[in-house]
Structures are given as C-alpha cells and as structure tokens.
Design a protein that fits this description.
Elements (H helix, E strand, L loop, with lengths): L1 H18 L8 E3 L2 E2 L10 E3 L2 E5 H7 L3 E5 L4 E6 L2 E6 L4 E4 L2 E4 L5 E3 L2 E5 L1 H6 L3 E4 L3 E4 L4 H9 L7 H13 L3 H17 L3 H17 L3 H16 L5 H14 L2 E8 L20 E6 L16 H9 L5 E7 L8 H10 L2 E7 L13 H11 L3 E6 L15 H18 L5 E3 L21 E8 L22 H7 L5 E8 L11 H18 L3 E7 L2 E2 L2 E2 L6 H10 L5 E2 L10 E5 L4 E2 L3 E9 L7 E6 L2 E6 L6 E4 L7 E9 L5 E11 L3
Parallel strand pairs: 1-13, 15-16, 15-22, 15-25, 16-17, 17-18, 18-19, 19-20, 20-21, 21-22, 27-33
Antiparallel strand pairs: 1-2, 3-4, 4-11, 5-6, 6-7, 7-8, 8-9, 10-11, 12-13, 14-26, 14-28, 23-24, 28-31, 29-30, 29-32, 32-33
Helix pairs in contact: 4-6, 5-6, 6-7, 7-8, 8-9, 12-13, 15-16
Length: 662
Amino acid sequence: MKKLVLIIFVFLTLLVSCIIVNADNIPVRIDGIYVAFNADTGYPFIHNSRTYVPLRVTMEAFGAEVDWESDTSTAVIRKGTTTVRCCVGDNWIYRNNTKIVNDAATVINNGRVYLPIRVVLEAFGATVEWDGSVNISSGSGASLISAVENTPSVTGNYWGIWNEALWLKSCGRYSEAINKIMSVSSAFISTNQPQSNAMLFKHLGELYSYLGNYDNASACFARESYYWSLSPGMEQSRIDSLRRSNLIKTNVQIYVKTTDENMGSKKYFGAQLESKAGIYLGAYAEGDTKIYNPYNPSKFYMDTFPDLVEKDMAAYLLYLPYGTNVTHYNSHIRRAINEDKILQIALEPHAGLRVVKDSDNYLKKLAQTMERSNCRFMLRFAGEMNDPGCPWYDADPTVYIEKFRLVADIFHRYAPSVPVVWAPNYYPEDTIDDYYPGDDYVDYVGMSSYKMEQPITDPMGQGIDRSRWSNQLDRIYSLYGHKKPIVVVEGGASYINYDTGADISDFAAAQLKDFYTYLPIKYPNVKMCFIFDSDRERQKFSLSNNYQYLSAYKEAISNPLYLSNMVAKKYRYSYYEISNGVNVKPEATSMASYIITPYNDVSYVIYYINGVELGVTYAIPYEVNVDFTPYKGQRVNVKVCAFNSNHAMISSSEIGVNVMSS
C-alpha cells in the first residue's frame, strides 16, 4: 500500500510539474498583508482557472500550524479548535473529520503541497475574494492587524514614543498607549525583526484585553504567535501566545445530530472492546473509602459506585505496579467476569523505564495470564509519560517508544484480545506527539484529563480561569481521532483550589457538567471515559464527599449516549460539526452549539435559517429542533447568536451549508 501511495505521489509531482510552464507570481494578502513568497516557499500559479498557492507558507502566515504526514501524503493544518486535513490527490478536505468537497485536488509541485486555498481558509472562518490578487480576511480583528502593519508612522524618535506608550500602559491609560503604539507600529514592522514585532503585538493584545476588546486582543496574540514562529528557538513563546489568543477569543461551533452512520465524523475502527455507538462509562472507584473497603464484602465498588451515581458502569480502572502479577486483583477479576465489565489495567514502572524488559518473562506471563482469564482487559502501559513529574518520564522519547513497542509486541502476540492503550497526560500538550509509538503498536489512544482551577493563567490579569475542561482533548483528538478510537483513561475536576485550599465546588461542578455534556458532541470517536473518584494531596475528586459535584456527574451521565454495559445495540445517534460547504441531510433533526467566550457567560442562544428564527435555547448544549426538508437541493444560511444576561450579543456565527437532494 505504501508503495502504491509513493507511485501516486511521484505521478502527481511529475504531472503538475509538466502542466505548470509559466507560473504567475500572484499576490496573496492576508488581512492586507502580503504573504512573502520566495524560491524556498514556492510561488502561486494558475491552472485551469484555479489559483493554487503553496499551502505551508500561506497557512502559517494565516496563523495556523502545518504538519506533514508522509505515510498518508496528507497536510494537516491546525488553528484554534479547527483541524483541516488535505490528502494529495483528493478533491476534498476534512474539517474536524467532516468531509468538504473541493473544486480541485491537492497536488505536489516541486516538492511542495499546493491546492486551491479557498475551501481551506473558509473552513477556518475566513473570507476569500479575488480582484487580480487573492485577498483573505481572517475574521474578527483582521482590519486591526492590517492597520497596525500598514498605517504610516509618525517621524521622529520612534523609541521615545514606544517607551512613552509602555509608561502609559503601566499607568492604566490603555487607550492612549494603543494610540502611541499605532503611531510607530509600521516603522517597527518594516525593520523585519520578528522578535520585536512579536513583542509589539503582545503589548497591543494585553492593552485591548484590559479594555475588554477581546476580538482585537485575540487577533493581536495570534499575530504575535506568527512572528514568534519566524524566530528560531522561540517555539514555547509561540505556543504561549496561541494559548492566550484562544483563551479570550469568541467562537461558535455548530453541530448537527444524525442517526445515519454514514454522515458526520464518527468511525468504528474495529478495535477490541470498541463501542459502535456511544461511550462506555468507566470509573476508578477503589480509592473512595466511603464506597470501598477491601475487608468488607458489602462495600465493594462494583456494587456501591453504581448506587452512588445512580447508573451502572461498563468499565473500571485498576493500577498495577510493574513486576506485580495481575492475580493480585483476583477478586476484582472474578467480579468483572461475572458482571461482564471491562478492566483497564494501568501498568506503571515506578522504578523507571529501565526495568521494562522481558528477560524474566514477566510481560509474557502477564499477557498469558490476562488472555486466559476470560476477563475483558485493556492494558495502559506507562501512561502520562510526557509529564516531567512522572516517575517513568524520560526527556528522550525514543527510550519510551522502545519500551512501549516491546510491551505492545508481547501483548499482541500472547494476549490478542487485550487492546494496548497509549495515554499521555494532558500537559504539556506540545510534546505529546513526540512520544507516539506508531500506529502498528497502539490500539487505543487515551489521555489523562484533569481540570484544576488556575487563575494565574488569565491573559487579562483578572485572576479568572478562562479555560474549559471540555476542550482539553482538542489537540490529541486532532492528531489521532481520525485513525484510532479515543479513551479518557482517567479524569476529574478538583473542587478544592490547589494553591489556596479554597472550596470551588461551583467551578468544579460546572466544568464537569460541561465536559460530559460536550464529550459525545465534540469528540464522536471517544469510546470510553473513566471518572477518577478519589482524592490526592491538595486535589479533591471524590464524588462521595461533595454533593454538588456528584449531582453534576449524575445529571451529565444520564445522557443515553453514555453506556453502562457492552450489550450490542443498534446505532443510536451522533453529532458532526458543520461549516461552510458541509452537506446536511434533508430531514428533521436538531442542532447544538459550543459557544466560546472569554467569560463563559452565555445566557441564551438564538438560531436562524435564511434569516427566519428557529428558536431560543437556554442551557448547554443549546440544542434546537430544525427541519432541513423544505430546503432540499439548496444552500442555506445557518446563523447562531449567543447573548449574555444583559441581552447583549457576545458571539455569533453564520455559515452556508448544502442541503442534499435526497
């Protein structure tokens, strides 16, 4: 198969190279700024009345990250919560795993990826116009970036004016500081010093955030990120500025419910224990002393935890130190077999990765014992390996990868019914992919996913944690959700502040409800989710000790998409995200929305189709009924507007979708 892909790749490369004889240097502007094409980046050209642009340089100028998957000849573009995949030879793209047809195929020319860029940019919410050049508007804040980089500067002492602007900022005179910076901004930009330009936009972003102009602040932080990307060795600064941009931006993601297995982005990968419809509920409950006592048979968590949360679990998590025989959990295994439960075994080498070898046949015996037991096991080996605080962390990912592959090879050979789970920690997310062992060794991709209140991360300096647990899976899902089933191997929201010890039950309950409400909507290829029901030092996750937190969990898992057992059921329903150009079925269904605002202060949401109001909804996931049947074969405009308690519109989105003929 790889040989076939290579042949196609070479063919396309030769084909396009032959077609393009006189390539035109077509101007491309993003928010009024020309993209700097050169011989290294490649130049745009026109072919069959289509304007092709080099993908990487264009999308990086747009503020996106671009990766290349050589094994599938696919370019992967990420910005904010959106991921777009463009495979060479395909005349369609995938936006967050939803297919959108393009008017021409992605091609290779002189070793670079090219395609008609409109469909990709529109997938990120941009608008594209043609007037002899390609003019791209990135959306909110676009005009500001153009003004900053193009407004004629005053003459005189630029550094003096700059220092005056910083003094005004320190005095809280934010508008005056902005005016001063704007008066010299293009002079600084013209010096072509990426780090200086990045700092200029950092200060502007902070100033606009202090004034409450979050769209402009977000745009400035995003532009800051672009300039850091041009500075060698400043990758962490680029990541930090993107994080600030995303934390304070406004955005609306719209989802359509479907009962059609062929619609949307939900997949069945054929992995052992994989759900075809819905998410298996799981829990770590052995650490909750109110519901489990190893010396009291009447307090066994497989009985008491379902009573506590008023719903049965399909799976449970157990930790196994490396070198310990799984028969240590014989009583647990017998109960799991009798009740047909999945056991996730977290195999942890507390003495470090050096102990992981099979010269003593420990791994082989462990695999054989698990295979012969007739219990439904899944094995998570050395999870959270990317976290420097983890006992088996190694800064050299190749060490971990070698050990994981050893374990996977042994289990695939001696325990073929036991899927092997690779599960990094949710932080630091920028190194997650470095530790990936490869598709051949990983059956499930998992993640430890926790939410702690961290007001220190507030880019506006107001001491508010603006992040949401419900988007913590964005990056790992964009990396692997199209090719592997996903599992949240453990997770919770602490209802005690880590630094102060203050009670933050309101915060934790809201985060938990938000996470479990949107998990099956945003991430349809998540197949299992384990709640962590125990306490750690300065972190409180125990459900039995907090009624508010427990109530939020019980309400959230009442959703029928959360499954209590492995009994095969027909396909229920799922959701897929819609954007410009997405196809929807002509049927009566419903839509839901994920609203992103700096204060998470949405009071109600109103939906429209072609300007006609569909309805108002007041609680997450802001679901409303819609009937696309009258619009068969048409393109319709779907609009969503979010309002706060003062009836001020705080975010909106309008997109054009194609209603299928049948």
